Amino acid sequence: MQSNQPFTVPFTHPLKPNKKFKKSVAYFSMEFAVDQALKIYSGGLGFLAGSHMKSAYALNQNLIGIAMLWKHGYYDQERNVDNSMKPEFREKFYHFLVDTQTRVSIDIAGKPVWVHAYYLPPDVFDTAPMFLLTTDTEGNDAEARSISYNLYAANNATKVAQCMVLGIGGTKMLDALQYEPEVYHFNEAHALSGAFYLYQKYKTAAQLKKRLVFTTHTPEEAGNEKHNIHFLESLGFFAGVPLATVRKITGHKDDTFNHSLAALRLARKANGVSKLHGEVARQMWGGYDKICAIDHITNAQNQAYWTDETLEKARTQSDTKTIMARKEVLKKELFKTVANQCGKLFDPKVLTIVWARRFAGYKRADMLTWDRERFHKLMTNEKYPVQIIWAGKPYPKDMGAINTFNGLVYLSNLYSNMAVLTGYELALSKLLKDGSDAWLNNPVVTREASGTSGMTAAMNASLNLSTYDGWICEFARDGENSFIVPVAKEGDINKQDMDNLFELIETQVLPTYYDRPEEWQNMVLTSMNDVNAFFGSDRMATEYYEKLY
Description:
Elements: E1 25-28, H1 44-58, E2 63-68, E3 76-79, E4 85-88, E5 98-108, E6 111-120, H2 122-125, E7 130-134, H3 142-145, H4 156-176, E8 183-187, H5 193-202, H6 205-211, E9 212-215, E10 226-228, H7 229-235, H8 243-250, E11 256-258, H9 259-266, E12 269-272, H10 275-285, E13 293-296, H11 303-306, H12 309-316, H13 320-342, E14 351-356, H14 372-379, E15 386-391, H15 399-412, E16 418-421, H16 426-435, E17 438-441, H17 453-459, E18 463-467, H18 472-475, E19 482-485, H19 493-515, H20 517-534, H21 537-548
Helix pairs in contact: 1-21, 4-5, 12-13, 13-16, 13-20, 16-17, 17-20
C-alpha cells in the first residue's frame, strides 16, 4: 500500500515499542529483501534481513533498518538468444518511498559526496521503519552518483565507497535525522566504516564498544573482506580517524586490514548465524586477541510472509490429506512458470526436486550432472519418474558460476523433465518453495554458515534433501523430517557426496514418495511442525534483543 504517513525531523519511531523490546536499535545491512517490488537484494543475506524487519514490525520492536537504495538493484536475469543467462541493468523507480528531504555529505577519496535518504514507512510492507541511502542525487558528479547504482560493484574502490555510504553515510544520516539509537547493529562488516565515524563522535573505544554489535556470516577466514590499510585511508574509510589510532583500536599492526577482525575488536558482542557457525567462528577467531565474545543466533525466516495459508491451517490440524491436495494445486501454479519460460509441461503428480539459491562454486549446483550416465538413468526412470528445476542468480562477474548455470540450461534441452528458470527473486522463490516436493541443498560441509532457503521450503510442505551443514544440523532428523546426505570422509569429498546423494534419491526419496505415500506425508507434517517450532524469525528477532542488544 502507499503510505500516507508524513515525514518530519527529528525522526521518532512510529511504532509503540513492546516493553521487552524498548531499547532503540539501528540495523545496518547492505541488502534487504522485504518485497518483490523493492529490488535492493541479491540473496540469502537480504532474505534474512528482510525477515528480520518483518518480525521487528510484528513484535513492535524499537528497531529501524539502514539500507542502500540501489538504482539498478542487483541485476535483472534475462536470457540470450540461445537461452543462456544475460545480466541486465535497468533503472528502478519506487513511488512508495518517502523523500526525507535530508542529505549529508561524506568525503570519499578526497571529495565530498552527497548522500540522500528515502524512507520506507512500516505500513507499506509491514516492516520496521527503514531508511534507504542513495548517492544518485543533485550535486554529485557521474562517478559519485554511480556509487549506489549496482549492489556489490565489481570495482574494488567503488565497493569500498558503497560500504562507506552505508557505514559513514548511515551513521551520519541518523545524526541529521536527530535520531540516536542505543545500539548500532552491523549485519556483516559492510557498514564497518560507520564505527570510525562513531568513534569520532563518542571519543573513546570504550564508548563505541558500548553501542556496537556485529553479526558475522562467513564460515571461513579467507572469505572475510581484506584491503590494504593505506588504500582504505586514501578513500577516507576511517572517517578522519588518524591511521595510528585506527591501528591502535583495531589491533592491526601490518598493512592488511581485515574488516571482520576489526569489527570483532570494536564491538561489545558478536554472533554467528547457526549453532555450528558459532562454533566455527569461535574456533576461527579464537587465536586473535582482544576480540569480543561470539555467541550464535540461528537464522530464521518470517512465516507470515512465506507460508501458504491453506498449508498452515492444515498443518495446525494435522490434516495430511489437505496438505497433499493443496501441494498439487501449488505445483500446478509453479509449472505455469516452467511452461512459460521453458516450453515444458510438468506433471503435478510427479516428484519434483528443486535446487534454487545463489550460484556459487561451493554450493555445487550441478552436482547431480557430474555423473552424466547416472543422471540420465535418474531422469529416464519410468518406475520412479522425477522432475528437477534449477534457479538462482550467479554474481554477474563470476564466470565460473555463470558457466555452471548455462551448462545446466544447455543440458536441459535434452530432457522434458528438467528446467532451469531465470529471475530468482522473492516472487519466484516463493513459487518454487510452494511447488517443490524436495528441496535440494548440497554445499560442501562447513562452507555454509547457515543457509535459510530450506526453512521456507519446509514451511510449505517440501522436504529438505541436504548435506549436513548450517541450520540443517539443528533441524534434521534423517528419515523423520528430511533426507540427509551422509558426511563424506577423507579423500574425494565431491565424489563421495555425489554418490551418496544419488544413493539417497534412488533408494530413499523416490521409493518413499511413490511406494509409501503415507510415510512421505507423515515426514512432511513432522518437517512442517519442526521448522515452525524454532525457525521462524519472530524467535530470531527476540533472541537478538535477549542475546545481543
